[in-house]
Amino acid sequence: MPGRARTAHVLVLGGTAEGRQAAAALASEGCAVTLSLAGLTSHPRLPEGVRVRTGGFGGAAGLRAWLAEQGVRLVVDCTHPFAARISRNATLAARDAGVPILRWRRDGWRRQPGDRWIVLRDAAELAAVLPEQGRGVAMLGARGLQTLQERGDLWLTARTLMSPDFLIPPRWRLIHGLPPMSVARELALLKATRAEWLVCRASGGAAGYAKLAAARQLNLPVFMLAAPEKARQKGVSSIEELLHQACVRFSRRRP
Questions:
Q1: What's 235's DSSP letter?
Q2: Least buried of 19, 27, 159, 217, by fewest C-beta within 10 Å?
């Protein structure tokens, strides 16, 4: 990057593998990087040379004030594709603070021969189509599970990073896990739970793909929530592109 960017303060909204990669790459170029995490994991994997901030900002207004106070010159949104609220707040805060923002866009998953995907528009449709008293594995996140809390008839094994904030039905079982997982581990989970189907979100990216490969090997149907609008928006999709776009934006601003 140009010399003027060597001490530029960059805020990376992370909590994802891409966020850690982006923070590490920007730090290696000499930027002062703050990696923002929601605090959902107790032992997150952190890149070296990066300042970490945990917890919320207090909405768009709080984030705008933080950007101004910290002298941030670039925001990089690497949050989960289904984390719509923080992305909206980041867009508003960056706009009001006059700070450019870059968004990371994950590559979507592509259907392969043998895949049995049932793509659903929203959580209500998902809750309605799951087979009555079915046995399955859900990977929707703690908040995503809330959409199924009325389906107490299901024999459901749910893998999350944190426990949901509602009382789970008696037939449900919670396990905790942090991606990425290997295909072998996903196969073992599906077999051990005698899963008849898998439920997940169309999050894209390499880290979460193993569960789909495992379901394909077992010929299991996958009920999948469609990617939200955020995941379809334009953005950078490689570290090289990120560094190039950051360089362009820094060169347009006064040192």
A1: -
A2: 217
**What are the residues whose beta carbons fall under 8 Å from the beta carbon of 167, sequence distance 6 or more?**
none
Q: How many other CB atoms sit within 10 Å of the CB of residue 123? A: 15
Residue where the block lists tokens 């984030």 = 63
Question: Taking 90 as the threshold, does the pLDDT of residue 49 lie above it?
Answer: no
**pTM across the whole model:** 0.85
Whether 130 contacts 200, CB under 8 Å: no
Q: What is the mean pLDDT of the chain?
A: 90
- Is residue 197 classed as helix, strand or coil in its secondary structure? strand
Report which secondary-structure segment, H or E, holds 35. Answer: strand 32-37
Q: What is the pLDDT of residue 255?
A: 40
Domains and CATH numbers, the chain: 3-106+230-251 (3.40.50.720), 117-226 (3.40.50.2000)
Question: Where does the pLDDT of residue 178 fall: very low under 50, low under 70, confident under 90, or very high at 90 and above?
Answer: confident
Task: Give residue for tokens 């793909």.
Answer: 209
Q: Of 24-38, 50-64, 228-242, where does mean pLDDT reach its minimum?
A: 228-242
d(Cα 234, Cα 231) in Å, to the nearest integer? Answer: 8
